[in-house]
Amino acid sequence: MSAALVGKILWVAMVVGWYAIRYPFERRAKRRRVERTRRGRAETIRMLISLSGLGILPGLFVATGFPWFATYAPSPVQTALGLALMVVALVLFRLTHKALGKMWSVSLDIREKHELVTRGIYRHVRHPMYTAFWTMALAQALLLPNFVAGLAGLAGFGTLYFLRVGPEEAMMEETFGDAWRDYRRRTARLIPGIY
């Protein structure tokens, strides 16, 4: 089996793993009332851009090989590194969902009786779910030997992240005030001790 085929299979496994982790939280979240939201046209566009980069373009490549002109032969080392990042991403993704529990939301929502989560992985990082998605996007870039489909995750999720993290932090500060400001001072945004 070629490294390219293994990479494609692993990418599909990563998407299935992502969905398996998220699905129960998504079902549970629908039962909790949203008090305040920042959903709207801009958020929908950000989500579609991210979905295009992390789902649609790579899915099209895996299913059809398109865009053919951007395909190259990967090394087994590249695929192995992609696998390692995939595992890290899914572990981080699971830890974030577990820590958030009932406070989880797919978008910029404040739920009824919302609490500021600072336990688990959130003790050290304010946005570990974004860290998980960045890691997933890097894994995709290594697993899919196509310059367009592989790198689309970094571009798509990067757009979502850079346009969303500011409004999200503003909403948290507005909701939790000094508790959020204190939490922000003692934690990193994505990577402990770095950023």
UniProtKB/TrEMBL annotation:
Where found in the cell? Membrane
Q: Which InterPro entries match?
A: ICMT_MeTrfase, Isoprenylcys_mtase
The superkingdom listed in its UniProt entry is Bacteria
Looking at the UniProt entry, the stretches that span the membrane are 6-25, 45-70, 76-95, 133-163
Pfam families for this protein: ICMT
| Topology in the lipid bilayer | Multi-pass membrane protein
Q: Which UniProt keywords apply?
A: Membrane, Transmembrane, Transmembrane helix
User: What is the protein's given name?
Assistant: Isoprenylcysteine carboxylmethyltransferase family protein
